[in-house]
Amino acid sequence: MADASDPANNQPAGYVPPKVWTWEQPSGGQFANINRPVSGATHEKVLPVGEHPIQLYSLGTPNGQKVTIMLEELLAAGHAGAEYDAWKINIGEGDQFGSGFVGINPNSKIPAMVDHSVSPNITVFESGAILVYLAEKFGAFLPTDPAKRAATMSWLMWQMGSAPFLGGGFGHFFAYAPFKIEYAINRYAMEVKRQLHVLDTHLAKNRFMAGDEYTIADIAIWPWYGGVARGDAYAGAAEFLNVGEYEHFNRWVAEVGEREAVQRGRLVNRGSGPEEFRLAERHSAADIDAVRAKMLA
Description:
Strand content: 5-15%
Shape: globular
Strand order of the largest sheet: 2-1-3-4
Helix content: 40-55%
Distance between the termini: 63 Å
Number of strands: 4
Radius of gyration: 20 Å
Structural class: alpha+beta
């Protein structure tokens, strides 16, 4: 067993964890105002419902982008039943704790989706679960061959298990924590570098994550890891992590990023970037077309 550390060296100096933790003060950092150790609704708020079969309640974070990219890919492939309304859930203002949202996702995390094309309606939360649901519903982006399906599901679960180290670990301490902690940044930077090496090594032998076929595994992984590579997440992270050294990974990031459905899906429910390029809600293809026209002007 390691020797006990000297509390004088802790941060803050002299800090010793209590035997039982209690919530006495905000944790600090960018999201301190919404973090709390209990679940459930904090206020009454009914969720809006549009005219399309799919109702999505989300935000344009990497997890939210997974679903909007998937829906745009389905529409591009001719699946008209994938038409959707996307309603912005502003997590910074606590929309995820409204009674309507908690009613469809007790975990109060985006994204959450309701399928109104069936009776009774089907509610799905967790981005990975939504991807699988949509893939199975429309028979797209999830191979039927047992080996390819297993590979797709394996990489999808890899993303679900790995991304928290990238976001809640590295991203938090590198970009959002109230002060820089060398130990924490080094700990999570090492893990993210390992993950990038995993991706680079795999993509040296595979065009996409599950082989030659573009699947929900690519749709799940790209917004998180592609976002860092492109400089869209955690300012300065791409340089800090030397992401440019991963040749095969960057080839994949570029190829997936060139897909029109990916570009369209990334615009939906955006909460950052230039105001004129944000699309708070999406109710038709024309909504995205209008934003893209501004971006190309």
